[in-house]
Write a structure and sequence with these properties.
The chain is mainly β. The chain has five helices and 60 strands. Among the domains are: 2-409, YVTN repeat-like/Quinoprotein amine dehydrogenase (Methylamine Dehydrogenase, Chain H, 7 Propeller), CATH 2.130.10.10; 506-637, Methylamine Dehydrogenase, Chain H. The strands form 14 sheets. Strands 23-24-25-26-1-2-29-28-27 form a nine-stranded antiparallel sheet. Helix 1 (11-21) runs antiparallel to helix 2 (23-38). It starts with a strand and ends with a strand.
């Protein structure tokens, strides 16, 4: 049993304390309340210690579900490729059962007959019988399934395919895919209305919840939320849809009848999962970045927070008990929160008016949704004006975001008066010539309807799961893949760390050398994550000259200026690997601890800097003249989630980008101490330094911008780039900055003198890394999902060649020549 803390996150918490301590204390609290309330969300106060029970699970736990009889909890372990089963009465793990590659989401049928497991990396859904824990079917779906949801009658299963930008519809009884609903956006969350007539899908790029009519398979409305809407859940009555916004840290309440947002409540940093109590009187939100559980009374403003632990992930209620279980990624645990904690977390407060944000009918969605053979085609809507209600939020949106919304929708949004009653917006309707049920069956190559065969042995009626779950009996048969497909070419496997931040946990790893490095001046060195290789390309011929194999996924690679050593961090390891690039390719290992992530080498080659994602530090590793490492010389505390490093050309400064705290740390390398920290964007993820060390460029994966920062001042400019910038690199003369955009599949070319975008170059699927040749003539961009690298002419800004790399290439570095350093 561990002890956790309960903390209020609104002024109501102070009122509760005043009542508890009495009138005499009121004078003191009254003096400090005004100042304290202003910083309460970022610096909440503690209100006591509370016991929380925990049970061990496996690596990187994600989603969790509880059987309907409250007997067992299933946890999806992303890095272990299995499910942990916990006996809730004893609250201890019973056993693990196999899952697919990268299990990330779960859903259980209302009669306990089926458990659906979405496997992100193997792109399939496993249907498991919870009574026997045996696999009943494996169904191939779209790329990157992230959420699953059963229909109320359990007949259909809906799967959100993140990379496939679609929703797969599965016949649950037959264990076969019926159809794919295209979205042309990246789905993050799913919920099915109580009557089964509508599907709610939260999408990233549109920053909205799309409402799909399941009788026709067509979108009828987009409810604009702003920010980054993710997980969703319905109230027990089905009259409210609760959506968490990861970007702004809010819980949004949507009226499911009128399809408008009626309340927005600030809940914490990085909300990622949401659930409601059985009676609907409380809403619980897991905040990944602030390591808390927010407890919200949906009829009132404000919330309270319970400190949970490092990187909590998902929550599930235990039916009929008032308790909840939460998966905690940092500790690889499942935690149980008893009812007295959950029900007592919200302090009494007076009912106030709702706090509501923009609720918008989207411009015709069908114009943006693709139609293709074998999919549910979208039907166009007539031109119509959006009806909008704008009401006061818990906190004001920044002016830039509002301006962007108005520009995107090409209409001024006029404020309305706050009200408990939402402004109704008439939904669009459309009809098809034939019902969705017939269209969902799809056609075979001869144009005949494909009928689904019922799954043999499919359970009927309600079932309980309270049975013996001893280890064993976990073997599963092999099943033929479904013929339903997303219509896209599939790589064998891919990594999701940058796209899905919650999946960034480490697993046990060993390294082993197979083959040599083949490093020569002018070589491009590429991390091939899926095949677990360091690939060397001769840029004179654009041919792969060597593949250095490892036992697990490499995360980052760097080379010293003399080309003597390659330095590699492993995705799930705890060490820095040094590979002898000039000799026999032998490996030495230096223990860093935690989760080593990204690398930078000092220009003199005598120091390697390694970020540690687990404890938010930078390790300083000394390198002896012969190339051997002298070990960690110092550890520097930086911001949360260090993800990128850059060393000044004279070696005196080190800059560290911290994604989770949205900051840039400047470090004096002579004393190994942070000398300044400045806030940059919302989720900075890459860095480049000008040749004169005077200007720092930082990309932001949520803002879709590159920020221009002077080394001794604040941000002086920003450039809008493509969707989800992933990597940046400067030309040798510093005149041009190149930005690889993961989601829009483009390379943004920026003139650094005018701080302006001059070109968007089309690349392959999933650009993840970028580097520039030493002479500045060519730009190299790795395409994660096409397994290749694009070669772009810096003069014409056209793709002039493609290098087949294989294995999901991510990071790339170009080695210049002996003593001349690298470009990246």
């Amino acid at each position: 049993m561990i002890t956790q803390n309960l903390r209020p996150c609104n002024m109501v918490g102070y009122r509760s304390l005043l009542r508890r301590f009495g009138l005499r204390s009121a004078v003191v609290f009254g003096i400090i309340a005004i100042a304290a309330c202003q910083s309460l969300l970022s610096n909440p106060v503690l209100a006591g210690n509370l016991p929380i029970t925990s049970a061990a699970v496996n690596e990187n736990p994600q989603d969790v579900v509880v059987t309907r009889d409250s007997a067992y909890a299933y946890v999806a372990n992303f890095s272990s490729d299995n499910l942990s089963i916990t006996d809730l009465a004893k609250f201890s793990k019973v056993k693990d059962i196999p899952a697919g590659d990268g299990p990330v989401a779960l859903s259980i049928a209302s009669d306990n007959s089926l458990l659906a497991v979405a496997n992100f990396l193997s792109r399939d859904v496993w249907l498991i019988d919870p009574r026997t824990d045996k696999v009943a079917a494996k169904v191939e779906v779209g790329d990157g399934p992230t959420r699953v949801a059963f229909s109320p009658d359990d007949k259909k299963l809906y799967v959100a395919n993140l990379m496939g930008q679609s929703v797969t519809v599965i016949d649950a009884a037959a264990g076969k895919a019926l159809a794919i609903i295209p979205l042309n956006d990246y789905p993050q969350g799913l919920a099915v209305s109580s009557d089964g007539s509508r599907l709610f899908v939260s999408v990233r790029e549109e920053a909205a919840v799309i409402v799909i009519d399941l009788a026709t398979g067509k979108p009828v409305k987009a409810i604009e939320t702003g920010g980054f809407p993710r997980a969703m859940t319905l109230s027990p009555k089905g009259d409210r849809l609760f959506v968490v916004d990861y970007h702004t840290g809010r819980l949004l309440s949507i009226d499911t009848e009128n399809l408008v947002v009626v309340r927005a409540t600030k809940v914490g940093k990085g909300p990622i999962s949401v659930a409601t109590s059985d009676d609907g009187s409380k809403v619980y939100v897991v905040n990944r970045e602030s390591d808390t559980l927010a407890v919200v009374d949906p009829s009132r403003t404000g919330c309270s927070e319970i400190l949970i632990g490092d990187s909590p992930s998902h929550i599930a209620m235990i039916p009929g008990s008032g308790a909840a279980v939460i998966s905690v990624g940092g500790a690889n645990q499942l935690q149980m929160l008893p009812p007295d904690i959950l029900t007592g977390a919200v302090a009494a407060s007076q009912k106030t008016e709702s706090s509501v944000i923009n609720s918008t009918v989207s411009a015709p969605l069908a114009d943006r949704l693709p139609s293709s053979p074998g999919t549910v085609s979208a039907v166009g809507f007539p031109e119509t004006h959006k009806e909008t209600s704008r009401v006061v939020e818990d906190e004001k949106e920044d002016q830039r975001s509002v301006a962007e919304k108005e520009a995107r929708w090409s209409r001024h949004v006029a404020p309305a008066k706050p009200s408990e009653t939402p402004v109704p917006v008439a939904p669009h309707t459309s009809e098809l010539e034939e019902p969705m049920d017939s269209r969902l069956r799809g056609n075979d190559k001869q144009g005949n309807d494909k009928q689904t065969e019922p799954r043999t042995g499919a359970p009927n009626g309600s079932a309980t799961v309270a049975a013996d779950k001893s280890a064993g009996g976990a073997r599963e048969p092999e099943f033929a893949r479904s013929e339903a497909d997303s219509g896209t070419e599939r790589p064998e496997r891919f990594d999701v760390a940058h796209l899905v931040p919650a999946l960034e946990r480490r697993a046990a790893v060993l390294d082993a050398r197979v083959g040599g490095v083949g490093l020569t001046p002018g070589s491009a060195i590429i991390v091939s994550a899926d095949t677990r290789e360091i690939v060397t390309v001769d840029t004179r011929t654009n041919q792969v000259v060597s593949r250095f194999s490892l036992r697990d996924r490499p995360e980052d690679v760097a080379v010293d200026p003399q080309g003597r050593n390659l330095y590699v961090t492993m995705k799930y390891g705890d060490s820095l690997l040094t590979i002898d690039a000039k000799g026999d390719g032998s490996i030495t290992r230096t223990s860093i601890g935690g989760s080593p992530r990204v690398l930078a080498v000092r220009p003199d080659g005598q120091v390697v800097y390694v970020t540690n994602d687990a404890d938010s530090t930078v390790a300083v590793v000394g390198v002896l003249q012969a190339g051997a490492q002298s070990g960690v010389q110092a550890t520097i505390n930086v911001g949360n989630g260090p993800v990128a490093l850059a060393v000044s050309h004279d070696g005196s400064k080190l800059y560290c980008v911290n994604r989770d705290s949205a900051t840039l740390s400047a470090i004096d390398t002579r004393i190994n101490q942070v000398i300044s920290t400045r806030r940059v964007g919302h989720s900075p993820n890459a860095i480049a330094l000008s040749p004169d060390d005077a200007t720092i460029y930082v990309s932001d994966s949520i803002d879709d911008r590159v920020y221009v920062v002077k080394a001794n001042s604040e941000i002086v400019g920003e450039i809008r780039v493509g969707d989800r910038p992933e990597a940046i690199a400067l030309s040798p003369d510093g005149k041009y900055l190149y930005c690889a955009n993961f989601l829009s599949k483009t390379l943004s070319v920026i003139n650094t003198e005018t701080i302006s975008l001059i070109r968007e170059v089309s690349l392959g699927n999933g650009p993840s890394g970028v580097a520039v040749s030493p002479d500045g003539r060519y730009i190299y961009a790795t395409n994660r999902f096409d397994n290749n690298a694009s070669v772009i002419s810096a003069d014409s800004l056209n793709v002039v060649n493609t290098i087949e790399v294989g294995g999901g290439p991510t990071k790339i570095t170009v080695f210049a020549a002996s003593g001349e350093g690298i470009t990246r």
